[in-house]
Amino acid sequence: MACFTSCDSRIDMDEPDPSTGLTPRQKDALRSTWKVASVNPVPTGVTFFIRLFKTLPAAMSYFKTFDGMPLSEVEKSGKLRAHASNFMHGVTGMIDSLDDAECLVSIIQKLTINHHRRNIKPETFQAVFGVLLTFLEDTLESKMDQFSKNAWEAVTSVILRIVTKEVEDLEISENDCK
Ligand code: HEM
Questions:
Q1: For atom 22 of ligand 1, which residue has the closest CA?
Q2: Which of 127, 125, 109, 126 is nearest to 168 (CA)?
Q3: How is the chain split into domains, by residue range?
Q4: Is domain 22-173 classified as CATH 3.40.120.10?
C-alpha cells in the first residue's frame, strides 16, 4: 500500500517564508556559514571590527571609548573584545531566530532603538553589512559559495528593511512629542 504521509509532510526547501521571504534552503546556508564564522566569536569579532574601522573610519567615531586612540591600541583593548562579543552574539541571536519571524523582528527593533539613541542611521547599518559580507567571504573562503553569498545579501536586506521602518516610526513619535 502506498503511503504518501512522509511526502506530504516534506518541507519545500525553496518556499519563501511569508514574513521574511527567506527560503529554508537560504536559512540553512545562513546557519551553517555563521556556525563556522562564529566558532571563536571574540577573536573573529575583533578582526571584523578592525577591518570595519580600516574600511569605514567614520564608524569608529560612534565608539566614544576609542576616541583619539590609534588602531594598534584599539585592537588590543578589552573594550574592543567586549564590543566584538556583543556584536557576534547579536548576530547569532538573529540567525537563531530565522524560523521565528516575530522574534527576529523584535530583536531587530530592540537593536534599532538602542542604536538610534547613538544616532546610528540605517545607511550606517547598510555600510557595516557591506563590510560584514566581504569579511565573511574572505574568512569562509570556499565555504561561502554563491548561494550563501546571496542568502547573506537577502538576510541583511531583511534586517535593513526592519531597521529603516523602526527608525521611521521612532522619528515620527519623536516629532509627535515636540
Ligand atoms: C547587525 C548589526 C549590529 C549588531 C548585531 C550590533 C550589536 C550590538 C550590541 C549587542 C551592542 C551592546 C548592547 C547595546 O548597548 O545596545 C551594541 C552596541 C553598540 N553598537 Fe552595535 N550592533 C550592530 C550594528 C552597529 C552599527 C551599524 C554601528 C555603527 C557603527 C554600531 C555601533 C555600536 C556602538 C557605538 C555601541 C555602543 C558601544 C559602547 O560604547 O558600549 N553597531 N551593538
A1: 87
A2: 109
A3: 22-173
A4: no
